[in-house]
Amino acid sequence: MTSTSNYDFKAGSALANTLSFEWKGPNGFKLDKLEFDPKADSAFTTETSLQVSGVDGLTLEFKGNDSNKADLSFIYKHAHATVEGAVDATDFKTFSGSISTGKDDLAVGVAAAFKQGSSANISATATYTAPKLFVGLQLTNNFADFKGLFSWALDKDVTIAATSTYGTAKKNLGVNLGTSYKCNSNTTLKAKVDLDKNIDFSVKQAVNKSLTVSGWTKVTDLSPKSAVFGGKIVLG
Asked: Who has the most CB within 10 Å: 138, 185, 209, 228?
């Protein structure tokens, strides 16, 4: 059994903390997460999985809380494809499913979500992966919205990335540019900027195997007065 405690703080806000456990049981059963967050509307969150005996590659999962969530799902992994399905067990009116496959550096997938009384929502993805390069395209909302992703590792310490999005709801194009720099084996710096003149900067420090400290700041519309700060401490 493993337990983890998270402590988050943000300037002007009270300290928040959560406590979580995980446990690997017999016959393929695993308690992936039992989490308690005293400030959340649903204080207890549970996630479990079961590898089905006699059916290689099939896993059954449950994710729920003590208030309004009870999702049942399965994932079946075959040598040539992965099939997933899920249902909202609170009312059995929402269903989803997907299938994905790939060959060498190329992967593609199609997914659909169904809700009683509404038409299906279909999406598709395609990715290309090379040793230092990643390119991805995601089409959602019945192919009306898109998101493009690009990542390139300049060397073992520096990675640059970009995302581009278009949404029919706001009918606007969004672009984010970011970079990650690994100063050493324990310290990582990240920076991000977008077309709306927002800037994010963070630093993550692994103090030891059981303690990680992170800090971040965000500036909106390039205004120093808008700067906010926060941090996180992870034990376990």
From this structure: 138
Q: Print burial letters for 225-236: b (CB count within 10 Å at least 16), e (below 16).
A: eeeeebbbbbee
**Tokens in use for 83?**
């099939």
In angstroms, the first-to-last Cα distance of the chain is: 12
Residue with tokens 């590898």: 51
What pTM was computed for the model?
0.67
Structure-block tokens of residue 28? 């393929």
Write the CB contacts of 192 (distance below 8 Å, at least 6 apart in sequence). Answer: 176, 177, 178, 179, 199, 200, 201
Please give the single-letter amino acid code of residue 235. Answer: L
Within the chain, residue ranges assigned H as helices are none
Query: Which distant-in-sequence residues (6+ apart) come within 8 Å of 89 by Cβ?
Result: 64, 70, 71, 72
> Mapping DSSP to helix (H, G, I), strand (E, B) and coil, where does residue 226 land?
helix
Q: What is the pLDDT of residues 146-161, one digit of tens each?
A: 999 999 999 999 999 9
